[in-house]
Write a structure and sequence with these properties.
By secondary structure, this protein is α+β, with helices and mostly antiparallel strands. The protein has a single domain (4-180), classed as Aminopeptidase (3-Layer(aba) Sandwich). 26% of the residues lie in helices and 24% in strands. The chain has 4 helices and 8 strands. It has helices spanning 25-28, 49-65, 111-127, 141-150, and strands spanning 4-6, 69-73, 82-88, 95-102, 131-137, 153-154, 160-163, 168-176. Strands 1, 2, 3, 4, 5, 6, 7 and 8 form an 8-stranded mixed beta sheet that branches. The radius of gyration is 16 Å and the shape is globular. The two termini are 14 Å apart.
Amino acid sequence: MSCCRPLSASRGTASTSGSGPRRTPDSWRTSSTTRRSPAGRRCGRRFGQDAAREYLSNALARAAAGTRIQLAITIDGLTPLGEVVLLPDEDGRREVELGYTVGRAHRRKGLAARALRVLTGFAHRELAPARVVLRIDRDNVASAAVARAVGYRLTDDEPMARDGAHHRFTLLTWEHAPESAPARH
């Protein structure tokens, strides 16, 4: 069973471990899954074809620039069910922020925790920043449970207020200590 795979611009295959065909952004355009973002987006807003292409194009550009890593969460290696994101600070050494989202129909199956463990381990092993953090809306009980399950702990950092599309929310910072980094598999 696959966990995460990179978004790829190549036609026909995506570079990933495992075997079997992989869908790429070109083949996703006709998939019902991609009428939403690969993650189903946080607010359930549906994507049209142009928005899906723009989303994937932006993800690939950020990866090429080294400013973000976005991976699709998948079970079968084909269908994107969510995504995990790695956002390094400017030099990638002080702090790395991770994020995740899983499409509504695929929640409560352990996908977010599994994908977050993989990306957290990668961040600690390959980037070795001083901090690996999540920023979670204080009202998002499910994401807080995922963070705890993976070994993140709530910090004393000042909460961060943000304006969303429909409401103002407050983000709390969760940190994963290097000594609790997931073992390499």
